[in-house]
Amino acid sequence: MASGSSDKRISVAVVFGGRSTEHAISCISAGSVLRVLDRDQFDVIPVGITTEGRWVLAPDEPARLAITDGELPAVADEGVVVVLAGDPTNRDLVVQAPGEVPSSLAAVDVVFPLLHGPYGEDGTIQGLLELAGVPYVGSGVLASAAAMDKAMAKPLLAAAGLTQAPYVVVTDRAWTVDEPSVLHRVHDALPLPVFVKPARAGSSVGIARVTAWSELPKAIEAAREHDPKVVVEQAVEGREIECGVLEREDGLGPEASECAEIIVKGNHEFYDFEAKYLDDVTELRVPADLPPAILGAIRASACAAYDALGCEDYARVDFFVTGEGQVVINEVNTIPGFTPISMFPRMWAASGIDYPQLVERLIRSALRKGVGLR
């Protein structure tokens, strides 16, 4: 199906959860999307992936996917097990019940993956969906993998002329073979303070701010609990600004949203996991109060970053703006947080596209794009 012009409702599989440390955030995003999908236009199939990787047919109950009394949601390892085969001649979700012959649950017109982090945002599920011939919301295999891996994204962004903070990549082999040499290399290349990040994680999981060199080994080890590859970056003193990017409805390139500023209060040194999701200490200003010339530079840079990585449908691009007005790109998120209070939907709401419209526009964009080489 290339468009939504048919009288038949479009079958949308919303896929969430997954094996990464961002499992709970994925569930929260999915609950928000499920809540606003118009059942008159869409047949909705919620598919949860457990932390072990099992695909299950989840209840269509968005309230179960919210933070409740400080407890994060998760996909329960129960219910009907479903499989999507990598077969473009059969786009059905198949039910696999123990001791029974596999049976078709439903044909899927489009998948809306809301899998933050590895095994979802990194090109893996995108590859499966390409093999299965099922259109999906978001970037393809290469762009998803490149954006997820900060060590891979940085050279591509630099080639596009975008300013970044100086950094050092710490590979698993280098750290295992000669830890002192790695520490010496970081010490020589970067001034304090620095940020230590897992190369392929998001939601600020595993990130530490290091203000003394004695803290660096422990910070690297903590990041390695989430990813054996680590990026150490020079800290940028400045305002944290984000910008949303959407594919134009005519398919002729990206357009940027209003920009937003993140202001972290309280005892948080930076915009960490607790500040984002658990503690009420973050102020989000949409639109950001910056001079028009700087806002224009941010929006142009966001579109340039989107194109540099080959992104599709949507992305959120994060920046710092220094006291001197320099725009420094931080990272590109190809599956940004998608709750109604998340920055990406809020920026587009400020740009004239409300949350339900945004969800529908992304689904239509995915159907128009299709699968295969493009």
- The best one-word shape is globular
State mean pLDDT (0 to 100 scale).
91
Helix/strand-derived category reads alpha+beta
By CATH reckoning, the class of the largest domain would read Alpha Beta
Compressed to H and E, one letter per element, the order equals EHEEEEEEHHHEHHEEHEEEHEHEEHH
Tell me the β content.
25-35%
Strand order of the largest sheet: 14-13-12-15-16
Helix content: 25-40%
- How does CATH name the architecture of the largest domain? 2-Layer Sandwich
Biggest sheet features: 5 strands, antiparallel
CATH topology of the largest domain: D-amino Acid Aminotransferase, Chain A, domain 1
| Total E-strand runs | 16
Q: Low-confidence stretches at least 5 residues in length (pLDDT < 50)?
A: 1-6, 275-279
**Alpha plus pi helix count:** 11
Query: How far apart, in Å, are the first and last alpha carbons?
Result: 17 Å
The count of domains is: 3
CATH superfamily name of the largest domain?
Answer: ATP-grasp fold, B domain
Oligomer: single chain
* Cα-atom radius of gyration: 21 Å
